[in-house]
Design goal:
With about 575 residues, the chain is α+β, with helices and mostly antiparallel strands. The protein has helices spanning about 1-10, 10-20, 25-70, 80-105, 110-115, 120-145, 150-185, 185-195, 200-235, 260-265, 300-305, 315-320, 330-335, 375-385, 400-410, 425-465, 470-475, 480-515, 530-555, 560-565, and strands at about 240-245, 270-285, 290-295, 305-310, 325-330, 345, 355-360, 370-375, 390-395, 420. Strands 1, 2, 3, 4, 5, 6, 7, 8, 9 and 10 form a ten-stranded mixed beta sheet that branches. Helix 16 runs parallel beside helix 19. About 45% of the residues are buried.
């Protein structure tokens, strides 16, 4: 987008170079060299910013990991962390500059020096709408086809909007123009005309803003869906009354478990009715790691539950008690090819053993890991693991939860590796902490808006430079500085509304496609229309446009009338 704008702004300069003997190859190489310089400079700055972002994210994640998982996080350095951006950064910029450079090199001197005829611009705009509309229609069909084509449909929708943007500038100017006129009066009419004068440039700028706004909408929908799924999983997993957990939840390699005496002592408490335990071992399938969890299928369903993607809970729990059968997580199904009914061999302390998959399910403790859930009897026989790494307690009806928790904590005095919590409170804390972590997504989305703001600033600055003499004429016939500022600000606002409107449409399509694609790995996330995200994106888009227009508007208003009339 930036290089297309550069070529448009320097059209006459490039034509002059061609007229005095510059070859097409030299013009193309000039643009490509500019791209290489900017790509290298931007990449080096990006490495420094990326390092700072990594430190910031580490500072946010360390307390979360310490509280719930007890994993030490520290900065890691590798050659690929620097080599990949050093290659991709300049390569992306060169790829982005290639087509504009080629277009600039193909222009003949006369073509570059003469103004672009309005008829040609209208014809190009018409074809852009047709091509972009075709892409959007195909994208909608892919989005509605299911999870397989969802991601492709989302990307195609965004591409279709970018392609159609030049042809949508004039209709958007007519549609949103009355709003600008209502606010800025006659200056709004001038702003609308200025935007419509260069539809290609306006489309480039609006497309950049569209991508930023679409990202915000997508992030809002994705975070909402993830938190909805995580909340449901958490409430189902921690359905017991009291939870006894080790220092590290979901990662049990270094957990010191407890023998069966702890479960017996807790079962003997007067307030406790049911005790279910979780045991763990590590294994692998064909060299890929696989976590193995052991449960007692007779009592586990009374204190916790899993979301079954394939198979039923009753049949799966019954099968675990009968032979070497396993429930696998959706991630294990997709990465290791473990489908219901299939047999798979895993490494155990007794050598390779073959298990049969009876269902696919997950809970909040396993939904991001490749895991297999088997019976505790099989875990003891094949892995020699009989230690409990987590205990879940159901209290007797009418029991005082606070008193029961106090008695459980007294019992745990001999087991300092465990802590006791009310399950509902522990789940709420986990959800709240997860929500804090997902706010990082909004920060990443905000970063994408920076190029959009720079694009608006660039376009408005170029527009002011091109209209220097016109602005001088407006001032010469009595236009005030305030009216010039309002004209440029109205132009920025119109571009912002246009880009934000396209961004909202694209964001809804992209968010739907991305959320639907998660079902391919067994994560059925509910799609909720991101109303709050759309409102926030529209407000941010408009404010960004107004902020980007402040400096060009101020520069235009401060132009000296005599010098402006003498420009070029």
């Amino acid at each position: 987008n930036t290089f297309r704008t550069v070529v448009l702004e320097r059209r006459r300069d490039l034509g002059m170079l061609r007229a005095i003997g510059a070859t097409r190859r030299q013009i193309t190489q000039t643009i490509l060299i500019e791209g290489a310089i900017q790509g290298i400079g931007g990449t080096l700055i990006g490495l420094l910013l990326g390092y700072g972002l990594a430190l910031g994210m580490l500072a946010i994640m360390v307390p979360i990991m310490d509280e719930f998982i007890s994993i030490d996080l520290e900065m890691q350095y590798s050659a690929s962390a620097f080599a990949i951006p050093l290659i991709l950064g300049p390569a992306v910029v060169l790829a982005a500059s290639y087509w504009p450079a080629r277009t600039a090199g193909k222009m003949s001197p006369l073509e570059a020096l003469r103004p672009v005829p309005a008829v040609g611009m209208r014809r190009a705009a018409r074809w852009s709408v047709i091509a972009g509309g075709a892409c959007v229609v195909l994208a909608i069909a892919l989005l509605l086809s299911g999870s397989t084509g969802a991601v492709g449909g989302a990307l195609l929708f965004l591409a279709g909007m970018v392609i159609a943007a030049p042809g949508l500038v004039l209709p958007a100017a007519r549609l949103f123009g009355p709003l600008i006129t209502l606010w800025f009066a006659r200056e709004g009419d001038l702003a609308r005309g200025n935007v419509a004068r260069q539809p290609g440039r306006a489309a480039i700028t609006a497309s950049t803003l569209m991508i930023g706004v679409a990202t915000i909408v997508m992030m809002a929908a994705l975070v909402s869906a993830m938190m909805g799924m995580a909340g449901d999983l958490t409430r189902e997993t921690f359905a017991s009354d009291v939870l006894v957990v080790p220092q590290s939840v979901a990662v049990y390699n270094n957990v010191l478990g407890a023998d069966e005496n702890l479960a017996g002592q807790l079962k003997a408490l007067p307030e406790v009715e049911t005790v279910a335990t979780l045991r763990a071992a590590s294994s692998s399938k064909d060299g890929s790691p696989l976590a193995v969890l052991g449960i007692d299928p007779a009592v586990y369903a009374e204190v916790s539950s899993m979301q079954f993607v394939e198979g039923s809970a009753d049949e799966a729990y019954a099968a675990l008690a009968d032979g070497r059968n396993a429930i696998v997580t959706a991630l294990a199904q997709s990465t290791l090819g473990l489908d219901p009914g299939s047999d798979f061999a895993i490494e155990t302390a007794e050598g390779p053993q073959t298990y049969r998959v009876v269902a696919v399910a997950h809970d909040v403790l396993t939904f991001k890991t490749s895991s297999a859930i088997i019976s505790q009897a099989n875990l003891a026989a094949d892995f020699h693991k009989t230690e409990d790494v987590m205990l879940m307690l159901n209290l007797a009806p009418g029991a005082d939860k606070s008193a029961a928790l106090a008695n459980v904590q007294d019992t745990l005095a001999s087991y300092p590796q465990f802590t006791a919590h009310l399950s509902s409170q522990y789940g709420d804390d986990l959800i709240e902490t997860s929500m804090g972590a997902t706010r990082l997504f909004y920060f990443i989305a905000a970063l994408i808006l920076i190029p959009a703001g720079l694009g608006l600033l660039n376009t408005l600055t170029i527009n002011v430079l091109e209209r220097t003499r016109e602005i001088g004429m407006v001032r010469a016939v009595g236009g005030s500085r305030a009216q010039v500022r309002r004209m440029v600000t109205g132009e920025a606002l119109l571009l912002g509304i246009f880009g934000a409107a396209m961004g909202v449409l694209s964001g809804v399509a992209i968010s739907y496609g991305v959320i639907a694609a998660f079902s391919m790995i067994g994560w059925e996330m509910p799609y909720a229309f991101p109303v709050a995200g759309i409102i926030a994106a529209l407000i941010i888009g408009v404010l960004l446009a107004l902020s980007a227009g402040m400096l060009p508007a101020r520069s235009a208003a401060k132009l000296d009338i005599i010098r402006a009339l003498q420009y070029e």
